[in-house]
Structures are given as C-alpha cells and as structure tokens.
Amino acid sequence: MIPSPDFAHLWPSSRLSGRRLMAAILMLVIPVAGNAAAPPPVALTPQQSAELQRVAGYLNGIRTMTARFQQTAANGGVSSGRLWVSRPGRMRFEYEHPATLALLADAGFVYQWDKELKQTTKIELRSTPAWFILKDPVNFGPDVIVTGFQQGGGTIRVTVVEAAHPDLGSLTMAFTENPLSLRQWSVVDQQGRRTTVTLSDVQTGVALDPRLFQYQYLFTPPTQ
Known about the structure:
12% of the residues lie in helices and 39% in strands. The chain is mainly beta. A hairpin with a 5-residue loop joins strand 3 (90-95) and strand 4 (101-106).
C-alpha cells in the first residue's frame, strides 16, 4: 500500500467530493464552484518574456523525473515522500507513514485509492490544474494567463491561472535560475488557502518502471 497523508485537516469535512479531494492530494488547487473573472496578465519586459520561454523549454525537456518532496499545508501541517513523473500525463505520489490514500495519474485520469474505505475514485486529469505540468507541450499561450513573474536572488517564480477556469485558483512554480531547475510549487484556492510543495534530490531523464503508472499497481507498488 502506498502511504499518503490524511487531508481532513485541510477542510471542515473529512468526506469531500472526489474531485475536490483529488485536487487537494495533487496540491494543485481545489476546483470550486463559481464563475470567477479571469485576472489580468502581468506586463512582461522582453527579457522576462525570453526567460518565460526558457522555463517552458525546460519543462518540455523533462520526460521523466523523480524527487523527494515536502508538503506544507495551509494550516502548517507537513508531510513528505517521493514523487515520480513521466510526461506527458503520468504522475505518482508516495507519501511516508502514516498513510490512508494512494494516488496516480495515467491515461488522462487521476485515480485515488482509499485504504480505509476500500474505494477508488477516478476523475479526468484535464479537470485539475495538475494538467498544466503534465500536458505536452507546456506553454504559456492564450489558454494560460501569467499573472506573476519574479526573478532575483537566483530564483525565478512564475504564477499562472487557467484562462477558461480561473476558479481553479493559481499555481506558482519556483525554479533555480542557473542551472534552471524546478524546486517548488505552491497553489492558492479562492479561499486563499495555500499549499506548498518543495522538491529535493531532483533527478530528470531517469529510467522509470512503467508499472509505477499502471492502474493495477495502484494498490501495491512495484518493487524499485
């Protein structure tokens, strides 16, 4: 069984809808009801636009990645574990003990296995903001609004909102500047709740067992 933290502390109810719970586990914004107005894009200098394209090129260059992560929830709760990414469209989170959930994204869907309830929930990956990181190609085109860009102290931070669904909240990615490398992302929902994931021991271009992302291994991970 793959460990995953108890997310009940993030919301008043411990029984959330599948879609909201999935987005929470992904740490990529809670989809909430409503028709929020799209925020205006940030004004970029030519140099900043060039750096933004460098970021897009870096993300598109990642085909596989593994890393340690530490997640800090809105209430200060901390959990950690390891993640695996195989772009496009595949991701797996394995949380350290204590654990109740397993999570993987594959073939356009996100699957969550609840160990206690012995239930599996499935939602479309495209319906979660996680799609921005896993889609191919990653771009900052008209379907994505860049609402923030900061560069300094050896770090680049880019904040994006999905143009068609600003109610999904915002995603901020932080990169080391030289060499360019993803080191952190944080999300903020419409209620202002922020969850931050910090990466360490990041390795890209590594060989990954394809079974990591197969549904039949959701319940029992393959031996690495």
